[in-house]
Amino acid sequence: MVKTYSKGSRAERELAHFLNHRGFATLRVPSSGGFLSPLDIVAIRNGLVLTFEIKSHKVKPRLRKEQLEAFSKWTRKAGAMGFLAWRRT
Question: Catalytic residue positions?
Fold first, then answer.
């Protein structure tokens, strides 16, 4: 049985690797969900800033209202485009 944390971190690493090979500078934020960083990955290329919250579930994931608000606030503050990425397990 794979732990939820390891499934999530594997999905984060896969997306960071995918973006990196497409020319983005990527930063994985392993302690995400906290007060200062409500996101999992930041990807930057030529001034374009993307932020990602990644979920790894069998069924369609849902964010709690507080999570979504914190993610949206951080993304707006950074002038980034935010995405919810879902890896079906």
Answer: 32
